[in-house]
Design goal:
This protein is an alpha/beta fold. The chain contains 13 helices and 5 strands. Helix 5 packs across helix 7, helix 6 runs antiparallel to helix 7 and helix 11 packs across helix 12.
């Protein structure tokens, strides 16, 4: 007589749920190798969005994808017996499903499958710029104010945003700096979007970016070419020499915007003169203008930005005014 007790039946394997996320900023079909492995090894692949941009590429690769949006309980049951179910997440990230799974796990009444969040594609640095371009495109098309703007109409905002950026830098406010950089970037994207509509010479944000990339590479031969530069002064010489060849300018003063603030203009002229190795002292003359010019040239020679120095002094004056007002004048 066999008195050996029968061995208990092994517990059912709860299986595995893989929540596969993708980035809309990466071209569909460009998935990571772990993602492809998970998809090919899965017993079922589900997606609630029949128009998900990844589906044509998955099916072309031989992956059967069922259009379904199971509740958390149904998904856990589908994994019973050691099955693996991959859920291709929609843009919202399946919050209802993940909340339901969290509630089941917290109840303690259900043997939960293994849960894995698997990013199938990652944003590259700068990927959020694509979002900005898309948002700007929609605003230009649908906003009554933005749709009517022109380059000339927006010009004053570009100046304002540039000054606000400088103020944030000088104040040392990191949060304000990040915000003001965004405002300046918006001006670039806005103008580029307007430029797309020009009937004669249209260009896009890609043309703008492509142009500055080409310029940066060309003007940094010590980085992308065979030339050598070991000091900031040598880099500046490379830059100005290459720029002069590109622009075919007759004078080192060509290209300096004469409409900029006076102290900044004077300092820029002095910088060009000094870099070119010319000996051109400030013209002699009477009046505050010539005195300010001489001070600006002297400041630039000492490595001081006269415009920034005056703003700093002006802020100190403002603070003194505020204190005087509080003290009754």
């Amino acid at each position: 007589m066999n008195t050996t007790s029968p061995e208990p039946a092994p517990a059912a394997t709860p299986g595995r749920i893989v929540l596969l996320t993708t980035s809309h900023r990466v071209a569909p079909g460009l998935l990571s190798w772990p993602a492809w492995q998970a998809l090919r090894a899965a017993d079922r692949v589900l997606c609630a969005d029949g128009a998900h941009p990844q589906l044509p590429y998955l099916r072309e690769a031989g992956i059967q994808v069922d259009e379904a949006a199971p509740a958390a309980e149904e998904l856990v049951e589908a994994c019973a017996g050691g099955h693996t179910v991959v859920v291709v997440a929609t843009g919202e990230g399946e919050p209802a499903l993940t909340d339901g799974l969290a509630r089941l796990a917290g109840s303690g009444r259900v043997s939960m499958p293994d849960l894995e969040l698997l990013p199938a594609s990652y944003d590259l640095p700068g990927a959020r710029l694509l979002d900005l371009v898309q948002v700007m495109d929609r605003i230009r098309a649908e906003c009554p104010w933005s749709s009517q703007q022109t380059h000339k109409g927006l010009a004053k905002y570009g100046i304002e945003e540039a000054y606000e950026l400088v103020e944030a830098i000088e104040e040392g406010d990191r949060d304000e700096l990040r915000e003001e950089l965004g405002d300046v970037l918006l001006q670039v994207v806005f103008h580029a979007r307007i430029a797309e509509e020009d009937p004669e010479t249209p260009f896009s944000i890609d043309d703008v970016a492509g142009g500055i990339v080409t310029k940066l590479i060309h003007r940094h031969p010590h980085v992308f070419g065979d030339e050598t530069a070991t000091t900031p002064e040598e880099v500046k010489e490379h830059w100005l020499r290459t720029k002069a060849i590109e622009k075919q300018r007759e004078s080192i003063t060509d290209g300096i915007p004469l409409g900029q603030p006076g102290l900044a203009l004077a300092a820029k002229l002095a910088s060009r003169v000094r870099t070119a190795g010319l000996d051109v002292p400030p013209p002699a003359g009477e009046g505050i203008g010539y005195e300010l010019l001489a001070l600006a040239v002297s400041a630039e020679a000492d490595g001081v930005d006269p415009e920034a120095a005056l703003r700093s002094a002006a802020r100190a004056y403002r603070d003194a005014v505020v204190v005087a007002e509080r003290n009754g004048g």
